[in-house]
Structure formats: structure tokens, C-alpha cells
Amino acid sequence: MNLLITGGTVIDRTGERQIDVHVADGHIVEVCEPDVTIDATGLVVCPGFVDLHTHLREPGKEEAETIETGSRAAALGGYTAIVAMPNTDPTQDCVSVVDFVRRQGVIAGLCDVHPSASITVGRQGTQLTPFAELADAGVKLFTDDGNGVQDPQLMRRAFEYAKGLGITMAQHCEVEALTGGAVMHEGDCCSHLGLPGWPALAEELMVHRDIELVRLTGAPAHFLHLSTAKSVELVRAAKADGLPVTAEATPHHLSLTDELLRSYSAIYKVNPPLRTMDDVEAVRGGLADGTIDAIATDHAPHVAETKERPLDQAPPGMVGLETALGVAVAHLDMPLADIVATLSWKPAAIAGLEETHGCDIAPGSPANLAIFDPEARWEVVPAMLASKSNNTPFVGVPLAGKVVHTILNGQFTVRDGQAQR
Fold first, then answer.
1. What is the CATH number of the domain that holds 182?
2. Does any domain span residue 39?
3. Is there a domain that residue 10 lies in?
4. Fewest beta carbons less than 10 Å away: which of 100, 151, 310, 400?
5. Whole-prediction pTM value?
6. Active site residue 298
7. Is residue 418 part of a domain?
8. pLDDT band at 150 (very low <50, low <70, confident <90, very high)
């Protein structure tokens, strides 16, 4: 398909400008004779979004999500690439499972699906996975997400291997000895409700530990879903020291607080938990000043009956691929270009995908694009979500900014707000 996109505001790493965009043979070109012309007047044209943190559930938990349904949700959210988390069944801890996820992404996906792999075998925290084999198979990001690696000596070894292989360890920061039985943030709301609390310190201790391991080994680290003010301060100081650390925050941690748990609804139960408004403001500040590099969804689908259980029995997690842009635009007091950066080229660089995603919109670049209406105002209708699960916390929350088209390798995956398959 030869495509001409006219009238839009182009935003990429080089800045903001009004230009027409020509697409042919899956790439941006100087000029083409178009088969299709899209009027993007009033819309933003930008490099497609990249999610560093998607739970696709396949293999093993297809009742909650599949690679097909999850990638469809991603495309509707403007994503052209996602990193699939390894807490599947079986775990993505060997080349065969990683290859399965990648193949399914090619066969069924509406975006590029890039598998991560676990740091430890079975995510059990005792034995490192075969990093070299997995790196040779194309894995660039390693994480035991859902669990933090508790053993500091094992984590030191992981960083030392990572430094030599050119891969990145992505840490779920949680000292589990401090979080047993916890269902929400440890604070005033938790005490009032009489529920077991999850202290901010459980996150911050591991952030501090891994920053010091980075200082010792020189290996890069990426911190998943930061949620506390002190965690943001620790990463800010590490960056000021020149350490190779990056961080992400979720849409829900920049917009929602633990007060929502007063409803006793497990829809608001997530790991790490929703925190206080002071923490929310610190996360927003971290995104604004670049301490936090990326917005990552931590898209975590669950079937409805599991989220209807009591708080202490319900699983943590929220879906977020289709709402991430809307939450970010509605809740962040940042220039639109900076918001796009946290969704597109910054996470692409962390994932090692900068040659194919998040690229400048210029001749020769792959045509992986998101086109959205920054003025659109909308609310979530759970039954209309493409995800197989609809455990969203954003029902009734006004959102701003809506994806109109998503283009992958020069082809529409979403056109006029509708997935193309």
C-alpha cells in the first residue's frame, strides 16, 4: 500500500512540525503516488508506541488473554511493538518457549511481539536462566516480573553476565519478607480499613540494592513500575551519578491512589499497590524531568471471576494497553511531545528496538506509526475492550487523547479506530 498522510502534526525526536508523510513499501519515502490518502488535520502523527511491560498470558493462561487478543488491544492503543513478560506457563526461561511466543506474534499479532525472558529458571529465584542462549535467540530484556530476585548474590551474578552479553536486567522491586499477605499500600487508608499493608520500603530497599549493584558491576538496569516517591528520588540520584539505569511508571501509578481501595473492590488491587497522592505526584514529576524514562502499561488481564474474589484472594493486575495514551494525556501536565516520547522512542531504546520502532519520521525509516486525536475526550466501556479480559480501573474516569489509526510496516492495523483483523 502506498499511503499519503496529510495535514497532521508530526511529533518525533527531532521536534514538532506540519508535513505530509508518504509511505511506500513499508517505509517513509520522499514522495509517492498514493493508493490511499488520510486526512490527519487536527491529529498527531508520531512513531508507534512501544510497551515495555505486557502480560499476554499465552502460553498457559489463554482464558485471560492470548497473543492475538493482547496484540489487538495494543494496536488499538497505538502500539506497534510490545515486550511480552515471561510469567507464562511454562515460563519464558528457555529458547523453545521464547520462540513459541515470537512465532505466535508473527502469526496472530497485530503488532510486533518481542518476548522477554526470566532472570531465573521458573522465576523461582534460585538458578539463573541460560542468558547467552536466550540473548543469541534475540532476547534483550530479562525479568522475573511478578517477583523480585531476592538473593543479592544471585542478582550480582546476573548483572555481571548482563554486562558481558549486552542485555538488560529489568527488576520488579519487592522485598517479599515485607509484603507477605499485603493487599494494599501501608498507610492511613490501610489502617482505617484494617487490611494488611504493603510498605513503600519493600520497593525502595530493592531499588537501592540494585542501584548499588549497577554501581559495582557497570551493568545496565531497568526498574519496572516505580510507585513511590523515594524510589523516584533514588533513581534520580543514580542518574545524576551517571549510572546506566532507566525506569518506567504505569498509567495507574500516575493517576490513581490507594483511597480507591475503600470500595474493597479488587479491580484496584495491583502489584505494586496504588500509593498516596504524594507518591502519584512524585511519579508525575519523575516523568516530567526525565527521571522516569517511559510509561509502561503492566497490562495484566484476569478473567472476571478471579477479580470478583475478596481482596486477599483476588490476583493483582489491571489491563491498560487501550487506555495508556488517554490516561497520560488526561493526567500529566507535560508538553504533548514529552508524553509521546515516554510512550514511543524512549521505551523503544530501552527495549533495544530503536532501529525499527520509535524512529524519526523521515525517508528510509520503517512506517510504524500512531495517529491520534489529542483533543478527543472519552470514557472506557469495558465490554468494548479488545482484550479478552476487562479488569480496567478507569471506568468513569475521563480520558483525553484517542488513537485513530495505527500503522505497522506500512499497513493499517487500526483504521478509523477499528482493528483491521
1. 3.20.20.140
2. no
3. no
4. 310
5. 0.97
6. yes
7. no
8. very high
